[in-house]
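Give me structure tokens for this 244-residue protein.
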Amino acid sequence: MNKVELFNKIINEFNDKKILNDLILLGSWCLLIYKEHYKSEEIPLFKTTDIDLMIPFPKQIKNKVDIPKLLEKYGFDPIYSIRKNYVKFDNPDLRIEFLTPEYGKGTDKPHDIPNYKINAQGLRFISLAIDYKIQIKYKDIPINIPEPSCFLLIKLLTIPKRQNVEKAKKDIYTAKRLGDFIVNDPGQKKRLIEIFSNLNEGWKKTILRTVRKYTDNLYEILNNRNIENNKMLDKKDKYKGMER
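Here you go.
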């Protein structure tokens, strides 16, 4: 069984057990679904070993499934980090990791998901996928997934934090290729600008620094939009206090 076949079996199993609706798929496996859905050669394809599954609302889960036991029959073993006790599930071909958005001060401890008998690592940035989630049918199974523009922006926020050089290179390549697809599609380009415009200033600055360094076409689009927004704010400030 190859990686894609195993991925498909896991997705099908999670759908049958009604787990899939509680999750949002993140990471490079999204590219496989984008590529099949949008039929674009510009979308890169990385079938990595890591399947990243986000649990957006851990406390709202009502379903009860023993996920470790479910994964065991596909050859996945739970692997716990030594220091923080995060759990990942390893198979010779794939690794599954559960994530959840981190807010406020955050914590270095895993977030327990008792109904699924797992825990999830808290990460920032991925909360964007909740606000800009779409559902795409893959092999006739509806999967929650970030909009391509949202996926791209999360990548651009992640790149500066990468400590693994090889993973950083893959992220940069993915951002360039997916960026080409988005820029050349008017609807996707519009969504990129809309989502970027709604981000906080800190995230905008991080993204602009990243695209300025690695991809000129995205920098031109996003920087121009940012300048326009700032001009509008400056214009409003100019007349502030003059209202009757």
